[in-house]
Design a protein that fits this description.
Strand order of the largest sheet: 7-6-8-12-14-15
Largest sheet: 6 strands, mixed
Low-confidence stretches: 1-18, 22-43, 327-334
CATH architecture of the largest domain: 3-Layer(aba) Sandwich
CATH class of the largest domain: Alpha Beta
Number of helices: 31
Number of domains: 4
Helix content: 55-70%
Strand content: 5-15%
Mean pLDDT: 86
Radius of gyration: 28 Å
Structural class: alpha/beta
Shape: globular
Number of strands: 15
Length: 734
């Protein structure tokens, strides 16, 4: 096999972090002239798609290939069409569009069979098997890996090796440990006799990592001894051929086996050697991994100061390669947070632990700020990953952030950790820390029950959970809030806390909504708090009252639109007039400050399945973003986007992330939206009263919502929080 450069090794090395070896798009483009792609032609569609993918523009790369296939479908040779569909499937996989990926893989495999394109056929089988494995569909994964093996004749061909290694890993993860171990043993025997080369070292490292996976399952030291032997051989080869990339990987994984064997001093020394070697390469993807693992070991050894330093370096290097690491994995079952979230939370945990008793007030503030910034970095990255575009970066370049809070506003920043919850409260006087004896699991369980019972309007079984969450998240900070005369709470919820309305928390006598106006934001740096301009408040009202596309009619929208239209000047687009072309025309011609959409909306864990219903179709988040940026007169963002009939599924944290980030994505300063759908006169009443309160110059948007909610709490018909609590003020609350 040919020797690969350090650059070409990176996809394999990244795969070591996440479990399954899959062939990235660039390998398919550049590896073989038989694939009918001339890499010397700059206009090659796959070359251009790979360039876009490498820059993180997965959607653009996908569209490029889709358009090329559509345009040339009738003239494309089956072999080339098979390759294009295989690459399309890989892009869909990386974007998390699993169903589309499976369809494209099926097409690629079918065409490759017809064209007798064995190599392309094998590539697609391997990548589809990796997708199945990530979804824990182990039987389907095994079937694809076995089929790939039959198509690859050479035991030492890269494709054959990857398929066999993935097969072993699926057997291990599926619980068939003895068979998986036998596969690894046979592979180890064969590769132990191979010549000194980068491919041999690479294979030995991958085999060793598989033995480490087996050791984690069996909890047996023998498997780490096996891994250690393979890694020592890989280390010697890497040194002989002067390949520092492979040397760093062999050293880093050797450190893990030494750690598991109880040799902490040797492990720390090996991690440091791996780091030093990676520094010579300027390889942040390696530095991130080894600094993280070194920090974990230092934490176990109670060397907190050194551990914090290692974690800080891990986070620093992660920022440089975060996108590449995510592109390198097969997205199917693991969430963004599962993959890179731990490094952020583990650093915040170390920083916050014991800081409440820090006698140096200035140092304590510095540590609290760093801990919050660490989690803020994760939130920003998570939202950017969710929308898969530059909306987050674009907003951050324009905003001052929530640090410019008013004198009667407090920011509540809960950080959910495995063994406790840390509550950070920011006011103009600084940050206060409260440590809560509630684990992430405790919070998640209570949140789930609270949300489910809130949506049952027939009883008050939600109340014990509303009070428990108040005790955990509000009660500890009551004295601080009173001392600072706080009247507005801005919450930065995380994980399961995104799925609930904080306004419905209860102190035993009153709902939180009666004490404070409440707003939420997905992150401190993703909100630009500016007072609402009170002049030229034109409003675009749109919505559906009729049943369309299988969705139920919304008869109460008629009254909602009528009442709001009486309060503000503007334009109404209803039913047949509420279509994308008419929205485009309206937004091009008038700089509306407020846009109100009273129509079914669904927020899903996949942003591509999130939409707002129009009369003739569905408005995606990308389309909504484009519409709100249409106005030729607009120099400022839309001040308020109201979505009065949307919903997210209970317990779906990722869907709630999309709702929390809608203001960022749409390019609106604020969004008033609902966590769940209420097809009732109560929605019309609350929305109308909100807009009426907003006309009072003394009320912020959050206060206008609070007044509308209090009015419903005081009513006899709609005092159950299921009616009024799901309305959230997201983003700029002023």
């Amino acid at each position: 096999m040919p020797v690969r450069s350090a650059h070409e090794l990176k996809p394999w090395c990244c795969a070591l972090l996440f479990g399954f070896l899959l062939l990235q798009t660039n390998l398919c483009v550049a590896s073989n002239s038989k694939l009918y792609i001339d890499k010397n032609k700059p206009n090659s569609v796959l070359q251009r798609a790979e360039k876009l993918r490498s820059l993180g523009h997965i959607t653009a790369a996908t569209i490029l290939i889709q358009q090329y296939i559509k345009k040339h479908n009738s003239t494309l040779p089956k072999r080339q069409s098979a390759l294009l569909h295989g690459q399309l499937a890989t892009l869909f996989t990386q974007a998390g569009k699993v169903d589309f990926a499976k369809q494209a893989f099926f097409k690629s495999i079918s065409l490759a069979k017809e064209a007798n394109a064995t190599n392309i056929h094998a590539y697609s089988l391997l990548n589809r098997g990796s997708l199945f494995a990530q979804q824990k569909r182990y039987i389907s994964a095994l079937r694809d890996f076995e089929a790939c093996l039959k198509l690859t004749s050479s035991e030492f061909q890269v494709l054959h090796f990857k398929a066999k290694l993935n097969l072993a890993r699926v057997l291990i993860l599926g619980g068939n440990l003895s068979v998986g171990e036998k596969v690894l043993e046979k592979m180890s025997q064969r590769f132990s006799q191979q010549p000194v080369s980068s491919d041999t070292a690479d294979a030995l490292i991958n085999l060793a990592v598989s033995y480490q996976m087996l050791a984690d399952k069996l909890n047996l030291q023998q498997q780490h001894e096996n891994a250690k032997k393979l890694l020592l051989k890989a280390k010697i080869i890497a040194q002989k051929i002067n390949n520092n990339y492979l040397l760093s990987y062999s050293l880093g994984h050797l450190a893990k086996s030494e750690e598991k064997l109880g040799h902490s001093k040797q492990a720390l020394d090996l991690y440091q050697q791996a780091i030093f070697t990676a520094q010579q390469l300027e390889a942040p993807e390696l530095l991130f991994n080894w600094e993280w693992k070194k920090g974990r070991l230092q934490k176990i050894l109670n060397n907190t100061t050194a551990a914090i330093d290692s974690y800080r370096l891990a986070v620093y290097h992660l920022k440089q390669v975060r996108e590449d690491l995510l592109l390198a994995q097969s997205i199917g079952s693991s969430s963004f947070r599962d993959i890179i979230g731990p490094v952020y939370f583990e650093l915040a945990d170390l920083l916050l632990k014991g800081n409440a008793s820090n006698k140096d007030a200035a140092l304590a503030q510095q540590i609290l700020t760093e801990a919050r910034f660490t989690i803020e970095s994760l939130k920003t990255a998570e939202l950017q990953d969710f929308f898969q575009d530059d909306c987050v970066t674009n907003l951050q370049s324009k905003t001052a952030g929530v640090e410019t809070i008013g004198d009667r506003t407090a920011v509540l920043y809960p950080i959910l950790l495995k063994d406790r919850t840390e509550l950070l409260i920011s006011t103009e006087k600084g940050i206060s820390q409260f440590t809560i004896n509630a684990t992430t699991a405790d919070i998640a369980s209570t949140v789930r029950q609270f949300r489910q019972r809130l949506e049952d309007f027939s009883n008050h079984q939600y109340l014990p959970h509303a009070q428990q969450l108040y005790e955990w998240l509000i009660r500890p900070a009551e004295a601080t809030l009173r001392a600072n005369n706080i009247d507005t709470l801005v919450l930065v919820p995380d994980g399961p806390l995104r799925t609930i309305p904080f306004a419905a928390l209860h102190d035993g006598e009153n709902f939180l909504a009666k004490q404070y106006s409440v707003a939420v934001t997905p992150g401190l740096t993703l909100t630009d708090p500016r007072p609402l301009p009170r002049t030229d408040m034109q409003l675009l009202l749109s919505g559906l009252t009729e049943s369309v596309q299988g969705f139920t009619a919304l008869p109460n929208v008629e009254e909602e639109i009528k009442q709001v239209a009486a309060l503000y000047s503007g334009q109404v687009l209803k039913n047949k007039d509420y279509q994308t072309p008419t929205l485009q025309t309206a937004l091009k011609n008038t700089p509306y400050r407020i846009i109100h959409i009273a129509s079914h909306g669904q927020f899903k864990s996949d942003p591509n399945e999130t939409f707002l219903l129009t009369y003739d179709g569905k408005l995606s988040m990308d389309s909504l973003e484009g519409l709100l940026q249409l106005s030729k007169y607009r120099n400022e963002s839309v001040e308020l986007l109201t979505l009065s009939a949307c919903q997210t599924a209970a317990g779906d944290d990722r869907a709630a992330l999309g709702l929390a980030g809608i203001a960022v994505k749409a390019g609106a300063r604020s969004v008033l939206a609902t966590l769940w759908f209420i097809n009732d006169r109560s929605t019309s009443a609350l929305i109308t009263d909100f807009y009426n309160q907003l006309k009072d110059n003394q009320n912020s948007k959050a206060q206008a919502l609070q007044q509308a909610q209090i009015k419903m709490i005081q009513s006899t018909e709609y005092n159950h929080p299921g009616y009024w609590a799901p309305f959230l003020m997201i983003g700029n609350w002023l």
